[in-house]
Amino acid sequence: MHIETARRRQGVKVYTYHLLHQKTCPLARFGYNRDKKRGKKQFRVGLLTNDEACPVAVEAFRGDVGDPETLRAQIARVRTPFGIECVVFVGDRGMIVKARLSDLEAVGFGWITALRAPETQKLRDEGFFQPGLFDRRDLAEIADPDRPGERLVVRYNPLVAEARRQKREALLSATERELAKIEARVRRRRRKPMTADEIGVAVGKLLGRWKMGKHFRLTIRDGHFAFQRDPASIAREAELDGFYMLHTNVSADRMDPVQVQRTYQSLHQIEQNFRAMKSALDLRPVYHRLEDRVRAHTFLCMLALYVRWHMERALRPLLEEDPRQSFEGLMMQLETLQRHTAEVAGQEVTILGEPEPLHRRIFQLLGVPLAARRGAPLNPLEMRSSWALTPDRRPGTSA
Which sequence ranges are marked TM in the entry (predicted)? Predict the structure, then answer.
């Protein structure tokens, strides 16, 4: 979501994801799982961030709650007396559906989403935009008389177009190989030929796997199966490769087409936040059974994400110097800087690792002092090179 307040301009986005969970928790339900893990109960998480992807709030939902329903909860949540003047929700095609658009407009909120492929194809067929004109420009705004008070922004990305072309060709080739196997099986069945129904079941299972059936012409009858590509269907879909249509009710004086497109594209930052929460921050699996503990666990993970976000911003100069470097890589580098405490001849000895220049730079950017000895923090810029044994804990000396 994108929010403007009387004090400053900020944004909030909401996104949900499915996570594995204990079966006895009240939040645990069977539902659609994006990880394709069937037969497992789950719960869902809604995350609010500002326009820079900094976490603001988090909420746990039952596992059988759909994306549109979680959006309704966030509509009520942001309607609090914080001086908010304008709210613009940004969501993908599955989150902001027509039913939720009316809910947003009823409370005066704006929205930005994307049209589904059939809707984009319909606009192309009706002549509202011509894909061939986008060889010189990649962004344009069009109007549809059937959508009064709404704006349509067409975006073309040649890199996405090439990626989709390659993916479609790979899926078509894989489908052809499997269809050829079915064709060979039908030819081998001479003593008891396969019926048309048997062939149809086998073909249907295959086409449902890669969703390429619309690009093939099939001939099925008892004891016979043949197939071939449909060039017209493939060319029709390929014409829209790299195109996506953004749909918004935000006025042009508040957001121009470039701002609409950038705001929608910023949704990928939410994906990055969830990847960090699920992996590095151990959001899942969850071993708690009580609902309040699950919610507390989710909240603590959001707090950890908040700390990580600020650390990434502080370390941005270091990451920009070396594009191959990552935040995770820097954290792994810090693992080599260790502190060990041992007891030798009745005396406690503290051994500190020698910090490398990269360690010093990391702590300097974070504004965190390195401790030269227990209880004696030392500014990284003033550190000495003698980091073996702390002087007051050497064997044979008193503390």
Answer: none
If you ran DSSP here, which 8-state letter would residue 195 be given? Answer: P
Buried b (16+ CB within 10 A) or exposed e, 265-297: ebbebbeebbebbbeebebbebebeeeeebbeb
pLDDT digits (tens, 9 = 90+) for 200-220: 999 999 998 899 999 999 999
Token duo for residue 84: 């908010």
Q: What is the pTM of this model?
A: 0.70
pLDDT tens per residue across span 282-317: 887 888 888 899 899 999 999 999 999 999 999 999
Q: Collapse the DSSP code of 360 into the 3-class scheme (helix H, G, I; strand E, B; otherwise coil) and give the result.
A: helix
Tokens of 331: 């954290």
Domains of the chain: 2-155+243-310 (3.90.350.10), 160-237 (no CATH), 332-393 (no CATH)
343: left (phi over 0), alpha (psi -120 to 50) or beta: beta
Rg (CA), the chain: 29
Q: What is the dihedral of CA 108, 113, 117, 120, to 10 degrees?
A: 60
Q: Give the helix/strand (H/E) hosting 150.
A: none
Residue 19: CB atoms within 10 A of its CB come to: 25
The count of residues in the chain is: 399
